[in-house]
Amino acid sequence: MEWTLLILFIAAGISLMIPSRLKNLKGWILSLFPFGVFVYLLTFIPVIDEQWLIERSRPWMADLGLNLHFMLDGLSLTFALLITGIGTFILIYAHEYMRYYSHTKRFYVYLLVFMGSMLGLVLSANLILLFIFWELTGISSFLLIGFKHHQENVRTSAIQALLVTTFGGLMMLAGFVLLGLASGTYSLPELIIGDIKITQHGWYLPILILILGGAFSKSAQFPFHFWLPGAMQAPSPVSAFLHSATMVKAGIYLLARLNPVLAGTAEWQTIIPLVGGSTMLIGAYLALTQKDLKAILAYTTISALGMLMLLIGIDTELAIKGALIYLIVHALYKGTLFMIAGSVEKQTGTRDIDLLGNLAYKMPITTAVALLALLSMAGLPPMLGYVGKEIIYEAKIQAPHIAGFVTFFGVVSNIFMVWVSIFIAYRVFFRRQYHGFKTPKETSHHFWIGPGILALVGLILGLFPHQLGEYLIQPAMNVIRAESLKVDLKLWHGFNQVFMLSLLTVIGGVVLFMLRKQIIPFFRKVNKKFFDVRFSDLFTRFLDGIMLFARHNTRIMQHGYQRIYLMVLFLSVAFLGWYQLIDTRFWTIGLSVGHLPPYVTLIGAIIVIATLFTLFSRSRMAAIISMGVVGYGIAIIYLIYSAIDLAITQLLVETLTVAIFVLVIFKLPRFAKLSSRASKIRDGIIALLVGGFMTGMALKARNLELQHPISDYFLNHGLSEGFGSNIVNVILVDFRALDTLGEVTVLLIATLGVVALLKIDKS
Amino acid sequence: MLSIITGVLYTAGVYLLLRRSLVKLILGIIFLSNATNLLIFISAGMTEGKPAFVAKEGAEQTGQMADPLPQALVLTAIVIGFGIVAFTLALNYKYHKQTGTYDLDQVKETDKV
């Protein structure tokens, strides 16, 4: 079963290799891959019914608890079937839709990688692995949303989707790590089946909030909802896929998956219904005021996602059942509707519902398919949508604590949904006006096969809900509730309280539709007043703010004044150094200043005086000469303390330095008074701090022998192996000859640099 | 005493580096390089009048000799330090010729000449 993932990723590679003479079949060929996986997964239905859970694991980074660990149970299977099933039709549809786009090769790669990562997400049995696939879907959806990247608003939308969802993803990762630390495992089956009581753990709340952050942002819950309408900038097949089976459903999947681990607490049953409920209402309301067909659909998706969240939050058996059915219902009708919207746009040149109309007679097949899907969206019999809505109403009525609140919001949202469905049907297909840019005619079969089959599936499942319940919903329920349940779905429930609510919903929707001429302008006015601030704009402004802050920061840090860089550097060195010196009490290591012979003291005094002279001399010549004196003094110290070679080298180098300086110095200007007295004092203090630290360190170093030096080796082997009695020389030219070669190279490069500098022209 | 000299040399080096004059910057580098050499040298312990010359075979080895390793290190360092000084001097000269300034505060843009 883990191979199914590989197949999709391989298909992404194959899509690049399809020869151009098969171009006319490309979508069909590629659709075989997800379709094959779909059929293969279907064979698991009886297996899952028997044993609930199939696991496959291969070691990856076992030390970190990260393995290629996959699982297939009722919940994974439901999602996997949706992904591959709808994916198949998306590819067929895309084949025709993308025909006149450029870079379609890329498009298929992105789409298949997206499909593969989504499938990986629902099959992962390891939290970290799940996170990896989670972010992969984010990245591939970014590439898909930004496919028409030559338009600026497309780029903005893509970036927004990426940032919002990956930000949530990172929160989720933090939550996963906490969860892993708290429970000691990253393995999902262990978490689900094991008796680890995370809900009693002290970290429960942070874990829950972090993971909810991931789920809410991915599933476009308020206030993260704004990226989803922006994502409709993607080509229609992508929108259809993203809104139906993938991406936005990932958050729903995550919470359903972790339900046995995290649910059942007051926090779960408060936060999620609150967020889900408000998202549901806001989405449905905002859908009404849109003019763009795809935007209307996008906001209804937000509303549907809110409904799913709400149900998962209510967390009763009925609610979970409702959520699972609605998940399938929504995937089927939303996939269909987005593809229809794409066809309509192709045929008319517009998505504006003020311009569209009268398509029922021009595009009869498309209209029929769309009507089926709209029926399901409105929750009318005999579609599966009706079955779902009935159960959802029942679940809401029986919701613990908050039944009244959720039922009211549910009915209002559903009334809006009915209204939107009628509105779309009327405006796009039946209104006797048409102001589109092209003369519409029926689309080719590519455009209606996929949506048509999806809509028909919705109808068939609505007529035979029992089978769906037994083979798919029941195994999924079993793993979410962690108990054996019997699921029996029916289309007709009789005249009860729920039916009355349904009736009320439909009547409400129809009445509101009749009154649309009065209500919609009013809603638009309210929108202008209260929802004038668009979240996506806020987000853009926030991003700009970050950039501005970064630029400002850089300007402060990278001011270009070398002195200040050095000052920061020296101060840090002095501070850290002094801290270390004081911390280790360097004065306690017997400060044997020693009795120096008087001639050494004399030389020392000369060096100090010459140094001071260099510092304060106003004459360049005097400064250089006194610097030379310092160098010669050091050479004499080397000489006294048995370093003959050093002394010679120092003398030579010092002479050369002074000579070169003298040659150059007259081409350079005189010393001028550039610094103020205050800055001199400040620099003096910094210099004294560094110098003092160095003295302390030198004292400490002299009186400390941490490890016996390796010099003895050189002393003992210098003659026998290096054939020289001057050990310093032997080290340089024999033992460490390569280092010396390096040194010579450095000098050579410096020479070349000097020559180059002096030779280049003023040009 | 020698530790104090090292400290003084470092102080002078840092002070000079913090000046705005390009020439003083080079002087500062020389001081820093001298100070560091001295620091390495003295931290190995000092032996007076006993260079690290081993006797030829047969001859008797007498007493503790100076440590040859830091000497070798410092020798390399002196030479490299000289290379740096020569290069910065040339750079300095060229820079002054091109721009006419030697105030480090004016050296803020890399792309402008």
* Percent of residues in β-strands of chain B: under 5%
Task: Tell me, rounded to a whole number, the average pLDDT of chain A.
Answer: 85
Q: Cα-atom Rg of chain A, whole angstroms?
A: 38 Å
Q: What is the radius of gyration of chain B computed over CA atoms, rounded to a whole number of angstroms?
A: 20 Å
CATH architecture of chain B: Orthogonal Bundle
Strand share of the residues of chain A?
under 5%
The class by helix and strand makeup of chain B works out as mainly alpha
Query: What overall geometry of chain B do the principal axes of the alpha carbons give?
Result: elongated
Calculate the terminal CA-CA distance of chain B, rounded to whole Å: 47 Å
- What structural category do the secondary elements of chain A indicate? mainly alpha
Using the coordinates shown, work out and report the CATH topology of chain B: Helix Hairpins
Would you report the number of β strands of chain A?
2
Helix content percent band of chain A: over 70%
The percent range for helix content of chain B is: 55-70%
| Total strands of chain B | 0
Specify the number of helices of chain A.
Answer: 31
How many separate helices of chain B?
3
Shape of chain A: elongated
- What's the overall average pLDDT of chain B, rounded? 78
Most extensive interface, residues per chain?
A-B, 96 and 85 residues
| Main pleated-sheet profile of chain B | none
Short description:
Chain A is mostly helical. Chain A contains 31 helices and 2 strands. The model of chain A has no long low-confidence stretch (mean pLDDT about 85).
